[in-house]
Amino acid sequence: MQEIAYLIVNNGNFEEAKRRTVIERGPFLEMKTPDHDGVAIANSAKRPRQIKTHLQYKFFEKTFKRQKPRVIVVMRNLKVSCKDTYKKPLNLKFSFPN
After folding, report:
1. Residue in 52, 55, 56 with CA at minimum distance from that of residue 27
2. 55: Cβ–Cβ under 8 A, 6 or more apart, which residues?
3. Which residues are 52's β-sheet partners?
4. In this structure, is the dihedral angle defined by the CA atoms of residues 38, 39, 45 and 49, taken in order, positive or negative?
5. How do the pLDDT tens digits run along the chain, 98 residues long?
6. Is the omega angle on the peptide bond into residue 27 within 30 degrees of 0, that is, cis?
């Protein structure tokens, strides 16, 4: 979904999409690690920008809502999400040194 939304907003510019990582094109707002700050990336991105978050729309400030942003909401079936969260680590192959 994020790839499709990015290409729609950027008039199908595949070359620009290839030059930038997924994190640069649409950072998770609440993610902060030593090498990734979602808020900083979002603030420095040129408009129109794409931002991903797990927050519900009702938690955004009124100033954000006054700008009339376009919002895409993606929802998953709760049972499928729980199953995937449980099974994904089981499918990972780990090798530990002796």
Report:
1. 52
2. 29, 30
3. 28
4. positive
5. 888 888 888 888 888 888 888 878 888 888 888 877 888 888 888 888 888 888 888 888 888 788 888 888 888 888 888 888 887 777 666 665 65
6. no
Residue 24 tokens read as: 């640069």
Predicted model pTM: 0.60
Q: Return the amino acid letter for 93.
A: K
Instruction: Give the start-to-end residue ranges of the domains of the chain.
Output: 2-91
- Other CB atoms within a 10 A radius of the CB of residue 12 amount to 10
Q: Looking up tokens 């199953």, which residue turns up?
A: 83
Give the ranges where 1-98 is alpha helix by DSSP (H): 2-9, 14-19, 22-25, 38-44, 62-66, 78-91
